[in-house]
Amino acid sequence: MFRRLPDANAAMIAVTIDGRAAQVRAGDTVAAALLSAGILASRAADVSGAPRAPYCMMGVCFECLVTVDGVGNRQGCLVPVAAGMRIETQHGRREAGR
Amino acid sequence: MTDLRETYDVAVIGAGPAGMAAATVCVRAGLATVLFDEQASPGGQIYRAVTTSPVKRGTVLGADYWVGGEVAQEFLASGAHYVPGATVWNLTREREIGISVAGAAHLLRAERVIVATGALERPFPIPGWTLPGVMTAGAGQILLKSAGLVPDGRTVLAGCGPLLWLIAWQYLNAGARIDAILDTGANRAGAWRHAPPFMLSPYLLKGLRLLLAVRRRVPVIANVVDLRAEGHDRVEAVAFRTAGGAEQQLAVDNLFMHQGVVPNVNLAMAAGIEHRWDDGQLCWRPVVDAEGTTAIAGIAIAGDGAGIAGAEAAQAYGLLAGHAAVRALRPGARGLAPEAAVRARLKRTLRGRAFLDAYYRPAEPFRRPARDTLACRCEEVTAGQIIDTVALGCTGPNQMKAFLRCGMGPCQGRLCGLTVTELIAQARGVAPQEVGYYRLRPPVKPITLAELAALPKNEAALRSVAR
To answer: Would the ipTM clear 0.90, i.e. be above it?
Structure first.
């Protein structure tokens, strides 16, 4: 789990995470926002279904794949949060059409 | 990206110290220069978020981080066409570049391409390394730099390498708790023959200060072997032995792992640039000259992507690659910094690198894990499965992957490739050079068919599918 340094606060914006309203820090990536919201596992592995979490935070490991605004397989660590964004943890592989 | 041109004099890929320095030089010499970077702001990973970091107290991340701010400001002010949030998924021998920005693909061409894709952390396959709560130390550092996040709860750092100590120091500066550092380094005696040049390295004093500052405040357990992360749906404990000792366990909420960084080779390999195994750094390294020039006309590699040397060296290599591009395209251009000074600085920075490579050489059991350990996180393939394909006649990663899909998941081998090469090399009793690496092909990052299909078509493309 992670906590925010007291001097690192910034404007918060409203998003939804798995359908629930959440406030996240403007400027964070989706992966950072999930971790700071206490959501450790951002997806379930498509092979075994085991929970997985952001591992590299730099775009190379693909463990933080999430569904953003209805589009699956987005690398959460590369996508900055935006007001109104719909973030969903991804269970297994990307669904056709999403 | 309506303002993206179809051609540029110079295209730079990556906004770390090498890429920023290269682009700045080129644009100042009057070259139409574009820089593509995957992140939202410049800095690469070493200076990640240096222009936007919410961590304002300079004492947390340290002066060596904030130096990057000057490089970034110079680059931003240079007038280079800077395209953040851009994923480069193709680079051809003809210097055609495929990029994806905000869900749309584009193709363009440049007279010179400077690949500055930097480094990534070496795979660290141990049992349980896929559990939530386990991440790389570099990932922890990125969360600190870019979001001001520090670990909460019981925290252990494990592995070896300068970055592990740097992040420990930065966490302590930030007031984060570290319960222990598990040092997996081994066989360090051999490193000392490289020590004399390191005595003159600028990293010596910095490194010692950092080590002492961390060791004063955190228990360090040396000679760690049989490391594993344990837990059900998340990491709950880290188990290990010290060489010859009994098993120990520490309850943890967070485990950060690191065993060095290696060149990020995917784009350069897919472009067809020759890479050779570097036994000192235990990684693939492109074949380049002192200015990063490759055997492919017009493509150079600058910075850690051409071999690990650190941020200062990367900046110098970027300057030299930029100079080479300027000389090729604008002979007689004025205003370039004197190269002698750049080369002198580079030489100083590189002094003693062999000592660091040898001293922090990752131990064998952590590069070639036990049979039951997952080597490929994407397709969940164990080390044992990979080794068994050698008995089936597989001589290298490309035959093996046809059996196991190892390396064919979304990370495209970035998190398993080195492990696979070293496992097969050992099983065959040959050198990694002989085993080779995955044959990487574009797209080097996943791109949707819809994006490809939406690319503008030329006459030839339309004719090729006409009936």
So the answer is: yes
